Amino acid sequence: MSRHHDTIAALATPLGSSAISVLRASGPQVRDLMEGLFAEALQPRVATHLDYRDVAGVLVDDVVATFFAGPRSYTGEDSLELSCHGNPYIAQRILEDLFKRGCRPAEAGEFTQRAFLGGRMDLSQAEAVMDIIHARSERALAAAQQQLRGALGRRMEALIEELLGAVARVEAYIDFPEEDLPAEDKGRVDAMLAKCEQGLAQLLASNHYGELLRNGIKTVIVGEPNAGKSSLLNRLVGSERAIVSPEPGTTRDFIEEGILLGDHFLRLIDTAGLNPTPQALERLGIQKTLERGQEADLFLWVVDSAGPLGLLPEELLRRMTPENTLLVLNKADLGAASPTLPERLAGLTALRVSALTGEGFEELRTRIGAIADAFQVQVGGEMLAINARHADALGRAKTSLGNARQQLATRAPVELMASELREALAACGEISGKVDNERMLDHLFASFCIGK
Ligand SMILES: Nc1nc2c(ncn2[C@@H]2O[C@H](COP(=O)(O)OP(=O)(O)O)[C@@H](O)[C@H]2O)c(=O)[nH]1
Ligand SMILES: [Mg+2]
After folding, report:
1. Distance between CA atoms of residues 400 and 425, nearest Å
2. Alpha carbon of 5 to those of 114, 130, 347: distances in Å?
3. Ligand 2: distance of its center to the CA of 232 in Å?
């Protein structure tokens, strides 16, 4: 059962004109609240159309009210959802009235925090709720849904189970300080730890993909001035976002647009042209381009197919591989033969397109999608994509495990090893939140929305 004594209320939908607005309240006073409002206890999970009158008896709106009796509610507490007409003035008046009736304003993420504290979901699932709200692509949504359904939690449980087994074996020897672990047990424990370490490594490998899902795939468009970079961005975005100019060197600042391409969310970044002989002002833009290039997940290298193939700065070329780069031979409409690629670039996929006519863009989108597909990491057949908090905890767990294995190999005292393993366990437990770290929790839920 929940330990909260107060009842919280908040608007669950954005403030604005819409078909409906939803308010929710959760906590021990919800039943009294209903009695006071509607002079009846509503049947759980049945939507009821009722008049909403404020404490002074003035009609505010007609609403659809749904009561969720704890523990069968989102928070695990008694909860009430009210749908009113989607007018911010009405929603605000109802909310203020709920406060007058004893509710207090919910803090950001407090409903979900209560769900977590009430044992309705583990911490990784609570985070998945936020991921679902913010998912901007099919893939991001699919990963968030898996996590909400407990995929990460289950994986961690299996790992923790395995670790506990190893700890039990090791700790059995703590009381016998003279004795070393028998070779047989040693081998067994090491095999168990190796398996855990591998499991951790697999999960950690999904961290980068998690970033791509949550932040979008950073797609940097590079190339010489006038190659058609801005035109390419415009066509991909489908609007005239970047300034296209026949004068070389016009794009000195960055233009960034989020686009949904197939199942993927991309952050397309147009850059200043990489003029081999720049003017002073251009030089600054070029410096910035190089910086952005260092963070790029995907490169679209645009060249003017009618001109000679200029080379890019070495620091960019070094980062470009067939797995992350498409060579876009633009201005195909001018009918020039494709430039021949130097040997070191022969592995790059080259595509002929015209940003002017749109020719080749179907293929370009498909190729970008294929590169993005290949970024996906599968963990044991499931699509998992951990976040930065998970990566931090798992990284610490892995370090502790590594230390323990080292100690096992060098016949260090069993206590030391046991303590490392305990640390690994604690770090693993942080993923689902089976630790009492209030500051961490407050910090985490504070990043949620009000009303969630
Ligand atoms: N014929 C033709 N001209 C293009 C194409 N793409 C861009 N241009 C022209 O090339 C010039 C430079 O384009 P822009 O997008 O500003 O290049 P950027 O400097 O690389 O950003 C402009 O005059 C565009 O209209 C294309 O596919 N075909
Ligand atoms: Mg430009």
Report:
1. 9
2. 12, 25, 65
3. 9
| Contact between 275 and 248 (Cβ < 8 Å) | yes
DSSP lists the bridge partners of residue 65 as 48, 82
Topology of the domain covering 123-206+384-433: Four Helix Bundle (Hemerythrin (Met), subunit A) (1.20.120)
21 has pLDDT over 80: yes
Q: Which of 312, 261, 324 is nearest to 286 (CA)?
A: 312
Decide if pLDDT at 119 tops 50: yes
Structural domain 216-375, CATH architecture: 3-Layer(aba) Sandwich (3.40)
Specify burial of residue 59 (Cβ count, 10 A radius: 0-12, 13-18, 19+).
Answer: exposed
Helix boundaries (H) for 149-221: 151-171, 183-204, 207-215
**Ligand 1 atom with minimal separation from the 246 CA:** 23
pTM, two decimal places: 0.85
DSSP, res 228 = S
Average pLDDT for 100-112: 96
From 26-40, 42-56, 241-255, the region with the lowest mean pLDDT? 241-255
pLDDT in tens, 379-406: 777 888 999 999 999 999 999 999 999 9
CA of 328 from ligand 2 middle (Å) equals 15
Single-letter amino acid, residue 281 = L
406 CA distance to ligand 1 middle (Å): 59
Rounded distance between C-alpha atoms, residue 50 and residue 53, angstroms? 9
Domain positions in the chain: 8-117, 123-206+384-433, 216-375
Which candidate, 438, 442, 396, 441, places its Cα nearest to that of 421? 396
Measure 219 CA to ligand 1 centroid, in angstroms. Answer: 19
Q: Return the best residue to mutate from 229, 241, 244 for the ligand 1 pocket (most ligand atoms within 8 A of CB).
A: 244
Atom number of ligand 1 nearest to Cα 251: 21
Instruction: Write the residue with the smallest CA distance to atom 19 of ligand 1.
Output: 226
The ligand with the least distance to the CA atom of 245 is 1
CA of 421 to the centre of ligand 2 (A): 55
Q: Which CATH architecture has domain 8-117?
A: 2-Layer Sandwich (3.30)
Q: How far is the CA of 277 from the centre of ligand 2 (A)?
A: 16
Q: Which residues line ligand 1 (CB under 6 A)?
A: 223, 225-231, 244-246, 251, 273, 330-331, 333-334, 354-356
